[in-house]
Amino acid sequence: MSPMYSDQEHIVSAYDRDLEAIQALVMRMGGLVEAAILDSARALETRDVELAEKVRAGDRTVDELEVQINEECARTIAIRGPVSQDLRVLLTVFRLSGSLERVGDYAKNMAKRTSVLVEMRPLPGADSALRRMAREVQLMLKDTLDAYVRRDAELAEDVRQRDHDVDQMYNAIFREFLTFMMEDPRNITGCMHLHFIAKNIERMGDLVTNMAEQVIYLVTAKMPDDSRPKGDETPYMRAEASDDKGE
Amino acid sequence: MSPMYSDQEHIVSAYDRDLEAIQALVMRMGGLVEAAILDSARALETRDVELAEKVRAGDRTVDELEVQINEECARTIAIRGPVSQDLRVLLTVFRLSGSLERVGDYAKNMAKRTSVLVEMRPLPGADSALRRMAREVQLMLKDTLDAYVRRDAELAEDVRQRDHDVDQMYNAIFREFLTFMMEDPRNITGCMHLHFIAKNIERMGDLVTNMAEQVIYLVTAKMPDDSRPKGDETPYMRAEASDDKGE
């Protein structure tokens, strides 16, 4: 009995070491993606083409980290044969890294627009609104990773709720762009660019929310069963709709 | 030597049976999500509140299938201890089911709008444009699942390319809505609803593209390294931008 027990102990600690190494990679990846979100928003606001280029180049590292994490997850599963909770942790990490990679993609996409926006005339308030939105998503991502590390379902649930704010910000920006475009058709192209950026940020928020749900699932073993708060709900509100409904 | 070999054979075939059962669940889930995409678009076009309600109710089954698939994947990994390609197949299925669930969410979201749209005046051509877009995404999803089953990286790559068409459709619809809104402000609320629907469909296309990339990764063991074709690219085109740039 005793050798088996010590064998078991050996396996557990080897798994722990592997998991720790993988988690370190995820945290590094998360840090890079957080920075990419903030940098791409800042590049946009200050029309800093050089910083935007840095974000675009940096996405390669994020992509490489995803591949590395996936391989390490597969290797650890194959070698250590984890079961139950240990296996679920690895499967969660595997999904989180996929979402992180996509958030990074959207940040890169946002950065790519900076070089076009330098040629457009600025719209009052639009850039700072987008930066605030990006900042909120970055904080959500930070908290999601913290929630993962601390196995804190409450914090993850908090993130999930905050996605609603991001969606509200998106809706507010969308309405503002509409006004700009109707005021002066020369604003249309610029607004469309900025709208695509807002859409990118909203989508990042969506991905981060999904990550938070994965964390909740990991900690509580069940998915939040009320459907996720969707900012797209706003337009369901009849009060809002009734403004323009007098046809 | 011979007993070990037969033991190995036994393990392999048990794994195959498990995998087959999981794949059957994925295909069922895929079929339900395909139907949800088409039904929600049709409900929208024909203002069929009852059909929309059916889509919303049906999403519960999709969610349950995801949970079931995840559990079966984890169970199979834990019990069969698959390695290398077998393990990669299961990890791919695990990710595909997550994306499928989210596509289903967007279809449900789309269906939810039908009840609001019945109160709006219709915009010429908008509903059929959205239906065509939804139809394209449904076909992409069908081909992605076929590509998975047949391990056909070429077909998956074809899906990936077609996401560009969906994004182009989105951009065309977006521009059309802009025109409607500028022509008559009473169109604004209706257009905003329809725009959210177009955005949902585009996002489904995005998720399906991501699924296609997972299939490519499974078959070829590497991610397509040129970044995914993004319809958001359209506005990068200077020719298009130059129209309104004379400020």
Automatic annotation (TrEMBL), chains A, B:
<keyword id="KW-0963">Cytoplasm</keyword>
<dbReference type="GO" id="GO:0030643">
    <property type="term" value="P:intracellular phosphate ion homeostasis"/>
</dbReference>
<dbReference type="InterPro" id="IPR028366">
    <property type="entry name" value="PhoU"/>
</dbReference>
<dbReference type="InterPro" id="IPR038078">
    <property type="entry name" value="PhoU-like_sf"/>
</dbReference>
<comment type="subunit">
    <text>Homodimer.</text>
</comment>
<feature type="domain" description="PhoU">
    <location>
        <begin position="26"/>
        <end position="114"/>
    </location>
</feature>
<feature type="region of interest" description="Disordered">
    <location>
        <begin position="224"/>
        <end position="247"/>
    </location>
</feature>
<dbReference type="InterPro" id="IPR026022">
    <property type="entry name" value="PhoU_dom"/>
</dbReference>
<comment type="similarity">
    <text>Belongs to the PhoU family.</text>
</comment>
<protein>
    <recommendedName>
        <fullName>Phosphate-specific transport system accessory protein PhoU</fullName>
    </recommendedName>
</protein>
<comment type="function">
    <text>Plays a role in the regulation of phosphate uptake.</text>
</comment>
<dbReference type="Pfam" id="PF01895">
    <property type="entry name" value="PhoU"/>
</dbReference>
<dbReference type="GO" id="GO:0006817">
    <property type="term" value="P:phosphate ion transport"/>
</dbReference>
<dbReference type="GO" id="GO:0045936">
    <property type="term" value="P:negative regulation of phosphate metabolic process"/>
</dbReference>
<keyword id="KW-0592">Phosphate transport</keyword>
<keyword id="KW-0813">Transport</keyword>
<feature type="domain" description="PhoU">
    <location>
        <begin position="130"/>
        <end position="215"/>
    </location>
</feature>
<dbReference type="GO" id="GO:0005737">
    <property type="term" value="C:cytoplasm"/>
</dbReference>
